[in-house]
Each structure stands twice: as C-alpha cells, then as structure tokens.
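in:
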C-alpha cells in the first residue's frame, strides 16, 4: 500500500460511521464509495481518492451474521416452541427476516469498515527489520546464553 492514498487528511467532522452509512468518500464526504451494491468504486469522483487501500475482507459478513442471526434464531426458536408450525411457516417467516436483515446491513457495515480503514490509516502489517538469513533448526536448538 502506498502512502498516497492517505496523503490528505479526512474532512473535519467526518466519522467512519457517517461516511460508511451514507456510502460516501471518507476523505471528502461527497463522492460515492460504491459502484454497485457491494462493489467498491475504483476512486472518488469528487476528490480522486484511490480506494485500492480498502480491504474489508470478511469483516462485514461476520458482523452482519453476528448481529442478524441471534434475533432471527431466537424468533425461530420461540416460534417452534410456542406454536410448533410446519417447516413452510419457518421458510415464510424466518428466511425473509434473515435475508432482509443481512442484505440491509451488509452495505452500510462494509462502508463503515472501509471508511474506518482510511480514517485510522489501517494498513497490512509489515516487518520492520526482516531477518537477513534464514533461521535454521540448529539455531533454534542451540542453548540460550544465560542471563546474569
């Protein structure tokens, strides 16, 4: 990742939550963050920020599944214990709740994570001083020097 994507500071007053929920650029707050429903735009149309720094990975899906599954499974469990309905009733009630909840939260949470990555300058971890020689089994097995 280059430092060029983080060259300009974020617009004052913008929080990751504000930008992410609105699907706006984390630097200027004007341009669109998404090109489609979940596809990130290559860059901001307003300020030109390159969104290639963004890598939300599976974070949004994990949060959405965690947030939505507990109430829906709780509802389905209550429905089963209280009324003992046939399977098709669960398909008509629990499945739409699950789909609507997941699809409704996925885009805002992905936007929030991308904006948080930009505002907090999140980057992939790098070794400061990588070892110059490979570590061998003999080096690991050698007795350590005693500490006085």
């Amino acid at each position: 990742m280059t430092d060029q994507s983080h060259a300009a500071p974020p617009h004052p007053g913008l929080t990751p939550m504000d930008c992410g929920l609105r699907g706006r650029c984390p630097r200027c707050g004007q341009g669109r963050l998404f090109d489609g429903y979940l596809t990130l735009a290559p860059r901001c149309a307003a300020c030109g920020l390159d969104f290639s720094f963004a890598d939300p990975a599976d974070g949004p899906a994990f949060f959405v599944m965690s947030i939505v599954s507990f109430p829906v499974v709780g509802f389905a469990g209550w429905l089963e214990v209280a009324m003992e309905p046939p399977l098709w009733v669960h398909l008509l009630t629990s499945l739409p709740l699950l789909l609507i909840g997941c699809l409704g939260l996925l885009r805002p949470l992905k936007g929030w994570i991308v904006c948080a990555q930009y505002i907090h300058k999140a980057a992939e971890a790098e070794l400061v001083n990588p070892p110059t020689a490979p570590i061998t089994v003999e080096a690991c097995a050698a007795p350590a020097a005693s500490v006085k």
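note: Residues 1-5 have pLDDT under 50 and may be disordered.
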